[in-house]
Each structure stands twice: as structure tokens, then as C-alpha cells.
Queue: 4 jobs
Job 1
Amino acid sequence: MDKHIVFLGLGSNLGNRHENIQKAIEHLKDKIIIEKISSIIETQPYGFVDQPKFLNCVLKGTTMLLPFELLEFVLEIENKMGRKRIFKWGPRNIDIDILFYDDCVINTENLKIPHPELHKRLFVLEPLCEIEKDFVHPVLKKSVYELYTQLISSRKE
């Protein structure tokens, strides 16, 4: 079986945020060999802003899971950790997003890879740049660093 390179975004804004991220990373190690983990950064909420600040990080790893198996695995971890999906962009004790899976492009109702919003989110691009700035977005054909600098400059205008 082949190993696949994956990038996952982790976030938490409820409970002990740092501990939640560490627990999620430990669970992920069951089926992912983690190669790099970014620094954990504190960020403002995205979308629905009337909620506590988030802690976010990004990790790079390899897995033998196929894309839909990976989705099932991360949802299982979120459920195990007590994630409640009350409304989109609402508060959560843990959020695990699949950002990239090799250079695959998947667009189904339940799974979209690359993550469709990642190029608009500093809280994803900043930690992603820290661990793999030269990775090229398979749809936008720009490196993570290019997407990051583009987003920064668009916010200054």
C-alpha cells in the first residue's frame, strides 16, 4: 500500500484549548505518521466572530488511509473528543480539517480537497508556511507562501 502525504489543520476554542489540540494529535498518531507540527497560534474566530479565540496549528504527516477513510478517521476523533456541530463556524472543542492530500483534487458533497477556504484563512496559511511554504496548491497552482503573501497584501489594501 502507498503512503500519502497529508496536511491537517487543527483548531480549538472551547475548554482547555491547548490540551484539546495535544489530545487530537495523539489520536491522529494511530493512523498517521506525523512528520512536522507548526507552532500553535492564537487567532480570532472566522465566520461567526462572537465566540472565544481559537488556538490553531497545522501538521504534515503520511498515512496509508485513502481520502474518505481519512475523513472518517478525523470525524471519529472529533466525535470521540465530544465535538458538537451546532452551527457552521460555531465554537468547538476540536476541529480537524483535511487541507491537502498529496496533490489530489476531490470535490464531493462530503469531502473537498484541497480545503476550499484555506487560501482565505491566515490561521491556516501562517502555520502551513512555517512547515511547508513551497507546497503547491493543486488547484490554484501557487505555493502556500504565495497564497499567504497574496492574502496579507489583499488585507492591507
Job 2
Amino acid sequence: MNIFVTGIGTGVGKTVVSAILTRALEADYWKPIQAGFDEGTDSEWVQHALSGTGSVMHPEVYKLQLPASPHIAARQEGVEISIQKICASIPNINRNLIIEGAGGLLVPLNDAEFVADLIKALDARVVLVSRNYLGSINHSLLTARVCREMGLPVIGWVFNDQYLDYEEEIVKWSNFPKIATVPFSETTNGAFINSQANAMKQRLKALL
């Protein structure tokens, strides 16, 4: 099964959640588009967090220098991101694959296509990541609406930090279930990833 992790924006915790999902399902991890890597790539971070678990980190299809929207980063390097090329590069494995997206659903990949189009082309199910901040309910429900309008199969929400009131509102209005809440931690190391994977494993598998 291909599971695509997207969020309501940038910096909401997709990489940490992707690592937790990878551990919970004993899956492999793939981030096909990396934009910006001066401080290391997301794949490198996940590999470090999951060291010794047996999960494989598959290489990026596009590794772009500029930390910006993928279509802008690609344009600067004279590259055009192709959804067809990404689909042709999907790892051929006999286990679940966690695919981490860039930004949110309506992040452009080229002059005509968005992250949401990539999800549809990959025939992936979706995990939505949300984090509490002023305006996050709006951003979460806009994300949910795009999923519905495009017919994307959503597994549910993973919330970063613990703000039950806003979680309940988003679940109610979106009509997508809550998978788990990941508490804030100063140290998102392997032990933290493992503990959160164990905490959400049963609920996650019940929703698959």
C-alpha cells in the first residue's frame, strides 16, 4: 500500500509523522521531491531516526538546492518536475511505502500540476498532518475540501501538539477520523519515534 503524507502547510511536522508511520507499519520511506538540503535532507533525518529498524529510505527523484516551492526551485535549476517520471520511479517493494510530500496539496510541481495531482497519479491513500496555530482550522478544512473534490482517499488526521478542542472541530467539520496526536517533544529521536509508533499502531491499522 502507498500512503502519502501531506499537511496543511509547511513546518507542520510531516517528516516526524512520516517516520512514525514508517515505524508503525514497518514500511519503507520515500520523499520523491526534496527542495533545499543545506541542513540535510528529510530522508537523511528519517534514516537516522529509524536506524537499525530495517526500513529502507529510497532516493529522491528530484533533489533541488533552493528551499522553496518545488516548481520555483526546479525552474531555478532548469528542471521541470514530471509526475510521470516520479510514478515511473516508485520503488518496487513488497511492503507498505510511506511517501512524504512537499508542503501541502496545492503546492505547484510545475506549470500545470499540484501535489494533489501527484497523489492521484500514485494511487495513494492519504494521511493529513495538522498543527495548532491561529488559522489552522481554516487551513485544515481547506485541505480536507481539496481531498474531497479530487476524490483522494483519506485515512485520517495526525495532529501535532495536544489541543483537543481544535482537533475535535477539525474532525467534526472534515468528517475524516483522527488517527493520533503526537505530543510536542524537544527530542524527536529514535526512542520518541518508536514510542509514538507503538501508541498509534493499533488505531492506524484499524483505519487501513
Job 3
Amino acid sequence: MNDSMSIPHLVMNASLVVQLVMLLLLAGSIASWIVIFQRSIVLRRAKQGHRAFEDRFWSGVDLNELYRETPAEREPLGAEHIFRAGFREFNRLLPKTRSSQAVLDGVQRAMRVAWSREEERLNLHLIFLATVASASPYIGLFGTVWGIMGSFQSLSMAQQATLSTVAPWIAEALIATAMGLFAAIPAVIFYNRLSAQSSRLLGQYEDFAEEFHSILHRNLQGRGEREAA
């Protein structure tokens, strides 16, 4: 390949606008890969933590003992966070009211808040991937249009229209298009994949909250029957 038509040479000699477009797309691509790796690690750990906590929860351990197991200095995550928020509210309201429904409503509100925080944590930065996926092709297209405009200008100023006159402009325009796709394709693939994984985990958290709510409801029913007897 002629050195004048090599990709590094074309990038270095592109117009300032196209270079800025390429730089923006490169920065977006690098940032999106950072987000992809970071979110993948977070979601993998969240799935492992959820399985470990559910195994412990359904092992028959006493709920008070399970609540005390989490060290105060460690922030609970996932289903454990929801469990601790609900059980803490349960223990706080139980001595204060004789209404089982008031206790259960308070527990449900506490678990809903914890679930919302887990949703925010799992979906952190995913909107950035969606933005890169949707905007990069258009940013690349802008660079392409600018390059094509440059090729027309070079043609109008040339005494003789030849391929060598317009080839560098067209080549840099196509590079801008390719970089836009290079940034957008991984972003859209991993946005869909990570969003699906996050949605599945949040669904599992919601199922756990419903099951835990039912356990507390049965606990209060049994306590009420014992007091009535």
C-alpha cells in the first residue's frame, strides 16, 4: 500500500474537523470498553453473591442470626441488602404497633427502597453505552459528510479531475464512518447483554422480596394466633 494512503497517514493528514470526529469516536470507544469490563465484573459478582446469599437464606438459618452475620463495616448488596432493609424495619415496627398490616407495609416500603438502590447500582453507566451506541454512527456520518465536501472542494480547485485528487478525502471520510461503527457496534451489543443480565437479577431480587414478605406475613399470623390463644 502507498504510504500516502495508509491509515495512519490519512488520519494524521485529515482535516481538523475530521480529526476531532475521530478523536471523539476513539475516546467514546475506549470509555465504552471501560464501562463494559467494569459492569461485567459488577454483574458477575452480583450473581455470585445472590446465589450465595439465597443458599444461606434457604438453609433454615434463624433470621435474626442471618441478620447479625453481616459485618457493620461491609455494605450489603443485592438480595442481602433487601433482606436487611426489610428485617431491620420489621424489628423496628414490631414493638411499636399491634397492626400486622402496618408492619408489613413498612417492610414492603423499606424493601422497595433497597430494590431501587440496587437497580440504580446495577444499571450504573449503562445509559452511557446506549448513548455511544446511538450517537457514534451519526458522529461518524458527520465526519464522512465533511470528508466528501472536502473532496468536492478539491475537485473544483483542480485543473484536472483525477482519482488521486479526491482519494485522500474519500478515504478519511470512510475512516470516520468505520470508526463510528467500531464504537457503536460493541456498545449496542453489550448494552443489550448487560441490560438483560441486570433485568434478570432485579427480577430475582423482586421474587426474593415477595417470598421474604410472605415469610414475615406467616410469622405475624402465627404470633397473632399464639397471642389469641
Job 4
Amino acid sequence: MGSRFSRREVLGLGLGAAAIGAYSLAGAATNSEQAQVKNNDQPAGTAEINKRNAEDLERVLILRTSPVAVKMVSKEEEIPKDAVRPKKDRGYHLTQCQAVSMSRRDKVTLAMLKEDNWCPTAVMAYGLVEKPASVNQWSHPYDSFEYGKYIGIVTAPLSRADFVPDVVLVYAKPAQLRGLLLSLKISDVPEVSHHFFPPSCGWSVVNPIKEGKYYIVLPDPGEYQRALTDEGDLIFSIPKVKMAEMMAGIRQNEHGPFSYRDHQMFMETDFPLPDFYKEMFKNWGMDTE
């Protein structure tokens, strides 16, 4: 696209400076961040990278709750030492949406294994149990991980996670989500998928990990009823393979024209036109004053 349109022409088409700037971000991520994305182990500096990413997301988007780092675990040795096991450590069960809410609101690291769960959907979606044949009769369809591949899921506030997240969940208002989306490279737009039906615990985790795509997910009723999710929130899932580029775009466009933090609303008729607006309006026979 950059070879066909000038910067001014692209702005005139309404794509904006943030989109143009983000278009060339493929190589903008630091070497350490790229190494993190490609490595399933915990490379040196993982905690520092996570903390910086969390601080930047929270600052630029003015988030009310922490971005959540999510890791699927296949053996107990992969569970962080500081992780709370709800049934074992506290004597109660949680739904997965409650666990995510505790991680983002209370800054708690939790490990949810089969015995910790109090909702059937998550254990089926994550492959902790086999899906019964009858599930499609009472549930919206959803993908699952292979049965037996994982024993559980770990969630933690991104700022305190010492592991490489398989996916990062950002609970955001529509305007904050817009700030995230307009930080993407134009070439990454097809990499954004969405799903607006239950279960959100499945679609926000399973599909981004399996497909390597960003996902916009509507929190399902259970999130509102049991996990205190705000009515205006949407979930934006950033898979591991996209995290470095997402953060590069956020940082480059922090003070761009589509930055959420710097946006100010105003209602002014006949506001002063930028010069390139005037040129385009003249070409179309429109008023410029």
C-alpha cells in the first residue's frame, strides 16, 4: 500500500498516521522480545519484558485492570511456585472467568486444574476432560484443545508473570480497543478475528493459541454474573506470536492521532481544515471555508 499512496493521500482516505506508522513495524520489536515470542521456555529477562509490556499497556490505554498473562500447562512442574491452587490452597472452587478476574483485579497468580473448576465449559474447552456427545445440544459450538494435552491453565497479572504467556487477555472498553486495533500494521488487519457467542473462556484462549490470531471476544453471561466483568468490557486476546509486534505498535503510536490516551472529544462545526482536506475538497467542488 505504501508504494501506491502518499502519506497525505492515505490520511485523506481516513486511514491515519497511526496506520501508516504501524505499517513498517515488522522489524521494530527488540531482539529480546522476538526471542520471547519464538521460545516456549523462559528466556532471560522474561519477567522484565512482561512488566514493561504491562506498564505500557496500562499507561497508554488507561486500563482499569491488569492485562492477564495466560499459560497452558502440561505438567505440574510448569506451574509457578507462587501460583494459588484454589482447591488445594484455599479449599474452594472457581470458574475460569473468576480466576481471570482475580488475576486482573487482585493481582493473583492462579493455577486451575480439573479439580479446581466449578464450571464444565472451561474443562472441556481446555481438554482437561472429554467432551460428551451431548454438548452440542445445550451449548454454542466452540473449539477445544486436544484431550489430555494439558493438565491446567495458569493466569497471572502480566506485570508479575515470570513465564512467557501463550496469550495475553486485555479487558477493554470500545475506545480502548480502538486504540489497540489502530496500532496494528495494515498488513495485520486480516489477523484480527472475533467471536460474540459463548463461551468466552474458550474463544479468548483456545482459538488465539491454536490459530495465532488476535481475537475480539464478547464476555459471556457467566462473566457478568459470577466474575464481576463490567458491562462495557470486551476481551482482546493477543497470542504469543503477535505480542512483540503489538507492543511495538502501541509504543510507536502512543501519541499518534488515534491514541486513546491523547484523544479529546469536541463538537465544533466548520472546524479549521488541514491543508490536505482543503485540497481534496477543492478537487471535489466542496466548500473549504
